[in-house]
Amino acid sequence: MTDQPSEFSPADLARRRSAARRLAWLLGLAVVIIYVLGLFIKR
Amino acid sequence: MMRTLPHSRTFGSSCAAARRRSLRCLIPAGTALLPAIAEAEMRFNFPEPVTPIARETLHIHNEFMLIITLLFVVVFAIMIYSMIKHRKSVGHAAVKFTGPTGALQWFWALIPFAILLFIDFVLMGIPAVQAIISMEDTKTRADMVLKVTGMQWKWQYEYPEAGIKFISTMSTPRAQIANAEAKGEHYLLEVDKPVVLPVGKKVRILLTSTDVIHTWWVPQFGVKRDAIPGFLRETWVLIEKPGIYRGQCAELCGKDHGFMPVVVHAVPEPEYLAWLEQQKAEAVAAAGSADRAWSRDELVAEGRTVYDKVCVACHQAEGQGLPPVFPALAGSKIVNGPLLDMNGRIIPDSHVDRVFNGKAGTAMQAFRDTLSDVELAAVITYERNSFGNKLGDMIQPAQIKALRQEAK
Amino acid sequence: MNTATTANGHANPHGDGHYSGLMRWLTTTNHKDIGTMYLTFSLIMFFVGGAMILAVRAELFAPGLQLMQPEFFNQLIGIHALVMIFAALMPAATGFANWMIPLMIGAPDMALPRLNNWGFWLLPPAAILLTMPFFLALFGIGDGALATGWTFYAPLSVQGGMGVDFAILAVHILGISSIMGSINIIVTIFNMRAPGMTMMKLPLFAWGWLITAFLLLATLPVLAGAVTMLLTDRHFGTHFFDAAGGGDPILFQHLFWFFGHPEVYILLLPVWGLMPHVLATFSRKPTYGYTAQVYAFIAIGLLSVVVWAHHFFTAGLPVPALIYFMFSTMAISIPLAVLFFCWIATMWKGSMSFETPMLFAVGFIVLFGIAGLTGLILADVAADAQYHHSYFVVAHFHYALFAGGIMGVMTGVYYWLPKWTGHMYSEKLGKLHFWLTVISFNLTFMPQFFLGLAGMPRRIPDYALQFAEFNAISTVGAMILGFSQLLFAWNIWSCVRGGPKAEARVWEGAEGLEWELSSPPPHHSWETQPVIK
């Protein structure tokens, strides 16, 4: 499978990691929103 | 697995005796188990149904067990066949396919799901919907109402039309539970005062609770319903056969969850009516006795019975409690405090207040509505003059009656 | 843990670790180290939770109270469940994810390594919080641990002692840890895949975990909200669950099971993701129905959040709700059947051999089949009135969570252990462990089905005489089951310490990126980016 080995370039890695960080914050925000909304549930 | 055993089977005394012996010395499993298995008739299915719902439930259950057993056998027969035939050790070479190809293969791949859909929504679904509708139909042609109130750890039964109510607690002695005495035939499934219901009548059962959630369950009725504090839930039974039916609380409700049985005596209607009349007469007598003056000894004697039934689970036989959760009454500041204020009213957080109104957020419940005037007066007097508490005072049932009216 | 350190034998001992000894493990951001810590923690807690339930089973060996009082019994059953679910099963799955997902998708590490470290180190304090009230009670502080069962049902939990507060706090911390782990797994899968690794080439294990992670993100905040409300009800005078103040105890059940039902699939999806890898490997045949399995995962994930009320059919729901929840629950059987179909079709006409992981996989399929089928009839409202709150349910969910969850994890451990350690485990001990586990598991839980049918409620410390025989059998089974797990621990321990050298491709039929790397893999996996064909 490793036909054409190519290095993970530092720039590429940095780009991927910052994209991952942004997404992580977004998901974290969603979690907090669900939690807060939950406190206002009435039946 | 499908076999229905006759329900009337109970443990013969010889069997119970054998168990008692093995209990005391806890014979290692290997030796104790084999004779026990040989001797006991183990039950593999629901007990004999005695209501239309229970019959329907058993029928549905048997049908479903048949279906899932068949599914299990067919699916795993295919797998086991493959495991035997398609092994490396018998020289089977792997065929490389990763999905259905062609119309025929797709057809065979989809057939199992069509069958499953049919089982889910037709074979199982339709009888299930019918059963739900009949289970939840509590109001049509109900002949009488029984109100069941769960409380830690006993049941209160009320017949609203007849105006009687009573508390039913487990009567198995604690000594049997602690293995100090031989266990009786109906160990843990016996009560001091069973609820009595007529056979052949549709009984609408209303359920609630005074403290935490309990669940009223009698397996032979096929009925299980939660008793939820502050809400009414309902279900119904129509018992078809006279007998004594036993069940238990099914929702974890604290310390003595395992010790709040349900016992129902189903009797023919005339017998039920006679019982009802007798209960009414007793209630009238009890109400009358609230007006007369009681002596302290009388109250203490009556109080001991009430205490042993209602209070002992938490505050224990010697009033020592189970600190820190269940406080001791012996030497308690509250119990040994003043009885009432100078105007004969309840002092907040006093002994009478606790027994009347309970303590929010703890297992101490309000007994104002669950105990009678006599019972309240008796138990308060008893607690103030027992366990080393020597207040020497007492409270009269008539005073309780007055306090009740004041509260209204 | 220190033994695991030396045994991992990293190819690059200098790596990013600037410390040695304990500090190395405290500060590590390496996905393999963190995976190892998760798995070690999980194994320890598996024995902690197991010891609790063995005490319970010993008490239930015969009628009467022999060993403990009901208060303590109630504490043991609840903490057993919380420990097994949150501290044994979930960390094991997270450990798998940490170790294997970067290897499988060709990433150098997890996307957020420091978050990863934090996620793990929240676990030990939470486990301590959960179990500490037991020890505090020994010194006369408080009245012991949570005694409400793991479900925390209000108002029992409002009434409970300080053990409830400890458990609420512990659940919050465990929840935060799981959420951080899930976020990390999601962003790793989305952002760190090697070029050419499209979503539909993603290994099924990663797919299973991806769905699990989304379920965790959607449902854990709801659990956290519910227990926060419980905390404010207990201490700050709110009345969310108190009818006297306008609240509703059943609201708690809705909130709890909105989390609690998906939780079952949270525990099982990683295992379902793992199964096709193991079955394909030992059948020497590619996975059958990859796409179908991916869609089945997604379907189960979606369905799992709309079926919660089947956990309290007896609470008195309106008829339309009963019918809806019954049919939506039954609908789950369809995607689940897709999985079973694909598993068996993967084995069909393969060239099978039965090493320990394959034995566990097959055992898993059969026993989990029993869980699935009994689950189908439990969905039926009418019959559920009899099964509910009884030992039938206890047996059912142990078939799901022990045979489905724990045996699934064992499959994974045996399958990947040579990859992790570089050594082969003892096949003989592994097989012995398998047979002891399967036989004693059935001996433990099959009688419980019959107990439930005969009418024995769950969570009772003592029982009527007619239940004695089955309980005795069940206890004997549980003791064998519990003690045979020592073989498992011993086998892992000796495999970590040494053993025959494992090849890069440990199993003859193994396919996938993770088998391209040496066993054990270098400290930094995939410094050279793999290219996916």
Q: Topology, please?
A:
The complex is a heterotrimer of chains A (43), B (408) and C (533).
Chain A: E1 6-7, H1 10-38
Chain B: H1 13-25, H2 29-39, H3 52-85, H4 102-136, E1 144-151, E2 154-159, E3 164-168, H5 174-177, E4 195-198, E5 202-209, E6 214-218, E7 223-227, E8 233-238, E9 243-249, E10 261-267, H6 269-289, H7 296-315, H8 351-357, H9 373-384, H10 397-407
Parallel strand pairs in B: 1-5, 4-10
Antiparallel strand pairs in B: 1-2, 2-3, 5-8, 6-7, 6-9, 9-10
Helix pairs in contact in B: 3-4, 7-9, 9-10
Chain C: H1 2-8, H2 22-27, H3 31-59, H4 70-105, H5 113-121, H6 123-138, H7 156-159, H8 162-191, H9 204-235, H10 249-283, H11 290-304, H12 319-331, H13 333-347, H14 356-378, H15 381-387, H16 391-421, H17 427-454, H18 468-497, E1 528-529
Helix pairs in contact in C: 3-4, 3-5, 3-18, 4-6, 4-8, 4-10, 4-16, 5-8, 6-8, 8-9, 9-10, 9-11, 10-11, 10-13, 10-14, 10-16, 11-13, 13-14, 14-16, 14-17, 16-17, 17-18
Structural summary, described in words:
- The complex is a heterotrimer of chains A (about 45), B (about 400) and C (about 525).
- Chain A is mainly alpha-helical and about 45 residues long.
- In chain A, about 65% of the residues lie in helices and about 5% in strands.
- Chain A has one helix and one strand.
- The radius of gyration of chain A is 19 Å and the shape is rod-shaped.
- Mean pLDDT of chain A is about 75; it is low at about 1-5.
- By secondary structure, chain B is an alpha+beta fold.
- Chain B has three domains: about 50-135, no CATH class; about 145-285, Immunoglobulin-like (Sandwich); about 290-405, Cytochrome c-like domain (Cytochrome Bc1 Complex, Chain D, domain 2).
- In chain B, the strands form two sheets. A five-stranded mixed beta sheet of chain B has the order 3-2-1-5-8.
- Chain B is elongated, with a radius of gyration of 28 Å.
- With about 525 residues, chain C is an all-alpha fold.
- Chain C has one domain: Cytochrome C Oxidase, Chain A (Up-down Bundle).
- Chain C has helices at about 1-10, 20-25, 30-60, 70-105, 115-120, 125-140, 155-160, 160-190, 205-235, 250-285, 290-305, 320-330, 335-345, 355-380, 380-385, 390-420, 425-455, 470-495, and one strand at about 530.
- In chain C, helix 9 runs parallel beside helix 11, helix 10 (about 250-285) runs antiparallel to helix 14 (about 355-380) and helix 17 (about 425-455) runs antiparallel to helix 18 (about 470-495).
- The longest helix of chain C has about 35 residues, at about 70-105.
- Chain C is globular, with a radius of gyration of 23 Å.
- Chains in contact: A-C, B-C.
- Chains B and C meet through helix 1, helix 2, helix 3, helix 4 and strand 7 of B and helix 4, helix 7, helix 10, helix 11 and helix 12 of C.
